[in-house]
Amino acid sequence: MIIAIGTTREPKINGIKEGIKETPYLSNIFNEIFFITEKISSDISDMPLSIEETMKGAKNRANNLQKKGIKADYYIGIEGGTSDFLGKKYIFGIVFVLNNDGEGHFGFSPMMEVPKLIENELYIKGKELGDIMGDLSGSLNIRSKNGSMGAWSDNMFTRKDEFSIAFKAAIAPFYNKYYQL
Ligand SMILES: O=P(O)(O)OP(=O)(O)OP(=O)(O)OC[C@H]1O[C@@H](n2cnc3c(O)ncnc32)[C@H](O)[C@@H]1O
């Protein structure tokens, strides 16, 4: 099996791999899976500020992998973003898994509240989360490590966990019996 993942960002790739190892569907063939990892355009803004835009970004990335001519059994697009719910902002990760029959499913990570100061920088000043967290934490590349969720949860919950759970939610509908009824 070949799985194409539209990113070179380590916690995203590791999240997908961890998710695969923990599914009842693909874990037994994990060692036979060949992974293609490639940075691909999401065709949305660099810092998505709504759940719909973040979903579009994940879906576009999976579609763009396929359009590029990459041959795989599954194409996986991944996007991190924030959105407003009932007046507060939350961060989450979204995974879109697409197969060669054109069947695609979204999966979502749990969400965490965005701290107030960071919300202002994002939604009022228009900055990117990676840059804001870089300035606040002194760590240049937080999104390549445990991510904002890790930073805001004292690593109870990391960026890898975010995408591992989102992947599991996206892959289940391809195999789970209730979706075949
Ligand atoms: O290389 P790609 O796959 O694009 O991975 P990325 O880390 O840039 O992540 P996204 O494009 O999915 O996320 C969109 C933006 O949101 C920010 N972001 C998302 N999650 C983050 C996190 O956990 N920590 C820091 N910044 C994050 C970051 O500034 C990104 O430019």
The number of distinct structural domains comes to 1
What is the typical, i.e. mean, pLDDT? 96
If you consult CATH, what is the topology? Maf protein
Number of strands: 6
Write down the CATH class: Alpha Beta
Largest sheet: 6 strands, mixed
- Radius of gyration computed on alpha carbons: 16 Å
What structural class do you assign from the helix and strand content? alpha/beta
Order of helices and strands: EHEHEEEEHHHH
Report the portion of residues in β strands.
15-25%
Mass-distribution shape:
globular
Q: List the uncertain runs.
A: none
Structure explained in plain terms:
The protein is of the alpha/beta class and 181 residues long. It has a single domain (2-113, 157-180), classed as Maf protein (Alpha-Beta Complex). The protein is built from 6 helices and 6 strands; from the N terminus they run βαβαββββαααα. Strands 1, 2, 3, 4, 5 and 6 form a 6-stranded mixed sheet that branches. The model has no long low-confidence stretch (mean pLDDT 96). Pfam families: NTPase_I-T (PF01931).
Summary, kept brief:
The protein has one domain: Maf protein (Alpha-Beta Complex), CATH 3.90.950.10. Helix content is 38%, strand content 22%.
List the SSEs and their pairings.
Blueprint: E1 2-5, H1 10-21, E2 34-37, H2 51-67, E3 74-85, E4 88-99, E5 104-108, E6 112-113, H3 116-123, H4 129-137, H5 147-152, H6 159-175
Parallel strand pairs: 1-2, 1-3
Antiparallel strand pairs: 3-4, 4-5, 4-6
Helix pairs in contact: 1-6
EC number: 3.6.1.73
Cofactor: Mn(2+); Mg(2+)
Domain Non-canonical purine NTP phosphatase/PRRC1: 7-175
